[in-house]
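**Folding the chain**
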Amino acid sequence: MKNINKQTSGGIETVGIMGLGIMGSAMGANLVKAGFKVVGYDPLPVQRAAFKRAGGSPAASVAAAARGVQMVITSLPSAAALAAVAEELAQKASKGLIVAETSTLPIPVKEAARKVLAKAGMIMLDCPLSGTGAQARVKDLSVYASGPAAAVKKVAAVFAGFARPHAYVGEFGAGSKMKFIANLLVSIHNVSTAEAFVLGKKAGLDPQVVYDVIAEGAGGSRMFTVRGPMMVAGDYSDATMKVKTWQKDVQIIGDFLREVDCPAPLFNAAAPFYNAAMAMGLADADTASVCEVLERWVTPAVKKAPARVAKAVAKKAAKAPAKKSARNTAKK
């Protein structure tokens, strides 16, 4: 582990993370590698155990994770989770704490949490992330930071510990607006990538050759590069963004589009394919599984594919807890 230079880190040596799921655990692990002391909380014991193996310090509660830290990062699955964390921080954490909220949630939900923290003398930043779970593991994330510019500047070194660039995009809420635009494009590009691979198969081309050639040309995209290998392999069990989680993001973007009265024909055309993946039992699969949805239309021979993928996802999910339990028992 590196040693943190206080002058270049904004004086921040210890960071708290609330939520140790796919994104939170990856951010925490990278911050540990960057030399920060990282204290993390998640309601699931298995997530806390994994965080400890990655070099972090697991805490038993939100209050414990926030004790003595200069900054907290929240990576949460729902509006209710953010509201609960904000309330506990407001009651138990120290004044002057900077909270970087990285989840994808409706702006009014974040604004409500910001007000709760502001009353307790804390600063909340709206800082959604652009990138998948796989990208998060290798620090290939972008941070869309919004809120007080001075606070963003103070935590810049922390962002650099788990992401590539971070952009200051304006007042509180602007980060989420930028994230909605990014996810709109991700939604479309993911489905168009699946469409391209199915066309390649119909045309008799090797999927791996399609990936290698298209990724280097003008038709490639970041989603083609990131999710293409899953589509080539036909294996979506190692989810970096689960279909059921993506449904939440799609709903938020759709609501925001209606709020600002903006047409989005391609986004609206892509959304049903994620609904179809849910209906086919792929809720826990990666969103790249929309390729399976399209393949089901190709020939009767591939209509069994969704069941195959769903079975693989279920098998992986069933094995994971057992594996982690075995490791914990071995340590004892």
Observations:
- The first helix runs from residue 22 to 33.
- Residues 1-8, 301-305, 321-332 have pLDDT under 50 and may be disordered.
- The radius of gyration is 21 Å.
- The first strand starts at residue 14 and ends at 18.
